[in-house]
Design a protein that fits this description.
The complex is a heterodimer of chains A (703) and B (71). Chain A is α/β, with parallel strands linked by helices and 703 residues long. In chain A, helix 5 (136-143) packs antiparallel against helix 10 (235-257) and helix 12 packs antiparallel against helix 14 (348-364). Classes of the chains: A alpha/beta (703), B alpha+beta (71). Chain B: Residues 1-71 form the Ferrous iron transporter FeoA-like domain.
């Protein structure tokens, strides 16, 4: 799709930029990543009244062109680099009409880059309501650019904005805001000459940001550095001087064009809400209540659609087996690829539900309050107030939770949150725990009301949260922060959530997961399927031949099928590998059968139950735990004559499942979120080592 | 007097900053010398604080607020 005009949306956070983007482009969007960084790239298309089609690119919200985070650094590099594939022909700066002063700082910086610009004055309805009067004509005249009053949530002014976009000049007409050259006259002149630009503000920005800009050649960058030294240029002092000059310009501008009452009404309403929501007692009670509700919903509401998706795929698999000729190609397609696809799709309900909540929390402004309330506790262990949501979400599933860490602006806090979230007991560990606990913990009450099995399960949940905190604390010292960790954050006014934004976010996140993490998940599940269904040499053929002999004819068909499946699994590549790793896992109390389960569990932890069922030759899935449990309870170690699953083995195994990174989907999503294989590799390594050591200790102590 | 010492509900006027890097960020956020600031609330655990500056609410940690000197 080729567009005739490229438009960039630029603005402060919380100005309704995403709402405007959704309104302009509808469902006509694609989401990707900017090359090399983990910043979401949102591009959409909008049909203009003159019949042309505009490509709209939504740049990350920022308060200034001087970046404080990776997200923000994208903005300048895209606006400044003429040869960048995303460089816009026109910039729409979106400004919150209820907070003109601070919003105009970014406008004046952007305008000085001398790219054609239009101002969209958003939230005019709220400004009107709180008595702020803006003389739009005068405002537009002083800036020298079109100013379009809009209310993106109420869809007013959108047609005017589209008209303004289509009539926009292709040369920049904006008035200068401040005298940029006065900040560093000689340096600006020299840089302008060096890189051949006639825009003094562009030259000044290069002086500040050249180290991070990819479009400069190393020689250019080194030359700029040299010039800075010659001129004794101090970046932060220059920024401070520039900001003060800009605010002086803004104060003059606002003095002539705007009248506002002493206190805005909307704000005091927001203040009243804050008195309750950030109250020292009710604040926490409400927050815990919301978290519990979220957690319950992810569990309860996703169960039904997940079952439906799983059943639909089973139906498709059966149909395909029926329709296609039997053979290895069909098996690969149906049991490998289609099954892998099913493994990807079942995550969608959980992702959609978690992101519905997160989008509501962010849209209303409550997320900032969560950060505000939790910052002091979470900071101590190297996390961020916003880490609470992914951690609690981790009780349902680490995959959507890790995707949700994007709300954490600080790089180091976000990485630590990603690293520890998979330690939290997710729902896939539940069938493993229930099976093992039922096996070795007596179903008895202690102190009247506490069931011992329930206590054991609760202990596993608490342990996971405690271990996540401890590991986070350790990472706090290992990781070096890229940005200075400050906490200067806007607390936006409370607003009603916009439901179409919520739907957009559910759709976006699910799509991003399927397209980007899905490939890895399918690849891994196909590999695991091959490993479990094929064996080296002629082993499988020999098994088939063996069971065709006459003495097996009298066997019941089900038993025969189970016996063949069990023996094939033992002789498959996974089974062989299980035997190979047995010496390594024996100190943990595991035999090769458990070894196979550890390997196949990498597709998803709950596969443990199914693998155990196959090994112990029974029908089994999560619904039929009892038959598997009975077989496992009766399993005897041939060497010792003792039961295989003693208390020591079961607890050691639970510890292994608690700490090990046995989840291909999480690995894939961590890669997607960090864009570097080192992170998932480091995570896999530390979790495996931790799992091994803790299982070892558990087994040796309990033995 | 530093901003971190101000009680909830009281106002002050920003005079200067003690930390250059922090001041750049604070000024971008509209917290400039000459600007009036009002402490609106303190987080339930005693830190961070929320102030009203140039018509909106800004939260910052006490350590950060202590770099702002009031008139």
């Amino acid at each position: 799709m080729k567009a005739e005009l490229r438009v960039a949306l630029v603005g402060n956070p919380n100005t309704g930029k995403s709402t405007l983007f959704n309104v302009l482009t509808g469902l006509n969007q694609k989401i990707g990543n900017f090359p090399g960084v983990t910043v979401d790239k949102k591009i959409g298309y909008c049909d203009l009244p003159d019949g042309r089609r505009a490509e709209i690119i939504d740049l990350p919200g920022t308060y200034s062109l001087y970046p404080k985070s990776q997200d923000e650094s994208i903005v300048f590099s895209i606006l400044a680099d003429r040869n960048n594939g995303f460089n816009p022909d026109l910039i729409v700066v979106i400004i919150d009409a209820t907070n003109l002063k601070r919003n105009l700082l970014l406008y004046t910086q952007v305008a000085d880059l001398k790219i054609p610009v239009i101002v969209a004055l958003n939230m005019m309805d709220l400004a009107d309501k709180s008595g702020i009067k803006i003389d739009i004509n005068e405002f537009s005249k002083k800036l020298g650019v079109p100013v379009i009053p809009i209310a993106a949530r109420k869809l007013t002014g959108i047609d005017d904005l589209k008209k303004a976009i289509s009539f926009a000049n292709n040369i920049a007409l904006q008035e200068d805001s401040i005298d940029v050259t006065a900040i560093a006259p000689q340096l600006i002149a020299q840089i302008s000459e060096e890189i051949n630009t006639d825009n003094p503000y562009f030259a000044l920005q290069l002086a500040h940001q050249h180290e991070h800009l990819k479009f400069l050649t190393p020689a250019q960058s080194a030359r700029i550095e040299e010039l800075e030294k010659e001129n004794d240029f101090h970046s932060q002092k220059a920024q401070a001087a520039e900001t003060i000059a800009r605010y002086n310009f803004i104060n003059d501008l606002l003095f002539d064009t705007i009248t506002k009452p002493e206190t805005a009404q909307e704000e005091s309403m927001s203040n009243r809400i804050d008195k309750v929501l950030t109250h020292r007692v009710f604040g926490f009670i409400i927050f815990i209540g919301i978290l519990l509700f979220m957690f319950q919903s992810i569990f309860a509401w996703s169960a039904y659609p997940m079952e439906l998706i799983a059943d639909a795929f089973v139906w498709v698999q059966n149909q395909l087996h029926h329709l296609l000729p039997a053979g290895p190609a069909t098996n690969l397609l149906v049991d490998g690829i289609v099954a892998g696809l099913s493994g990807v799709m079942v995550f969608i309900p959980q992702i959609a539900i978690l992101f519905a909540f997160i989008s509501i929390l962010e849209d209303t402004g409550y997320m900032s309050r969560v950060t505000f309330m939790m910052d002091k506790i979470m900071r101590k262990v190297g996390l961020n107030g916003k880490s609470v949501v992914p951690l609690i979400g981790g009780f349902a599933c680490a995959v959507p939770s890790i995707m949700s860490t994007r709300t954490i602006e600080n790089w180091k806090d976000r990485m630590i949150t990603i690293m520890v979230t998979p330690l939290v007991t997710c729902s896939a560990r539940l069938p493993v725990y229930t099976l093992l606990i039922a096996l070795v913990v007596p179903n008895r009450n202690v102190w009247w009301i506490f069931n011992m099995q329930g206590l054991a399960l609760t202990a596993m949940y608490v342990l996971s949260l405690v271990s996540a905190m401890i590991v986070a604390y350790v990472f706090k010292f290992i990781l070096k922060g890229r940005e200075r960790g400050y906490f200067i954050m806007e607390l936006p006014v409370y607003r009603m959530p916009r439901w179409s934004n919520v739907l957009h976010s559910m759709y976006d996140r699910s799509k991003a997961f399927v397209l980007q993490a899905g490939k890895v998940i399918i690849a891994v599940s196909v590999i695991l399927w091959v490993m479990a269904s094929y064996g080296p040499g002629k082993r499988f053929e020999n098994i088939d031949k063996k069971y065709q002999q006459s003495q097996y004819r009298t066997m019941n068909a089900d038993d025969l099928r189970h016996a063949i499946a069990s023996e094939k699994l033992e002789n498959s590549y996974a089974g062989v590998l299980g035997h190979v790793i047995e010496p390594a896992i024996r100190p943990l109390g595991f035999d090769w059968k458990i070894g196979i389960a550890l390997i196949t569990s990498f597709a998803a932890r709950e596969v443990f139950v199914g693998t155990m069922a196959t090994i112990y030759s029974v029908d089994g899935d999560a619904d039929k735990l009892e038959t598997v449990q009975k077989k496992m309870a009766n399993a005897i170690n041939p060497k010792t004559g003792q039961p295989v699953f003693t208390v020591a083995v079961a607890f050691s195994l639970m510890m292994f499942y608690a700490f090990a990174m046995q989840c291909a989907s999480t690995v894939a999503v961590v890669y997607r979120e960090t864009k570097n294989w080192r992170w998932p590799a480091a995570q896999f390594a530390y979790m495996t080592v931790l799992a091994y050591v803790i299982s070892f200790i558990t087994y040796q102590v309990l033995k | 007097m530093r901003l971190s010492q101000l009680k909830v509900g009281s106002k002050g006027i920003v005079k200067e900053f003690t930390d250059l890097e922090m001041s750049v960020k604070l000024m971008e956020m509209g917290c400039l010398p000459g600007e009036e600031v009002l402490v609106e609330r303190i987080a339930p655990l005693g830190d961070p604080i929320a102030i009203n500056v140039s018509g909106y609410q800004l939260s910052l940690r006490k350590r950060e607020a202590s770099t702002i000197i009031l008139q």
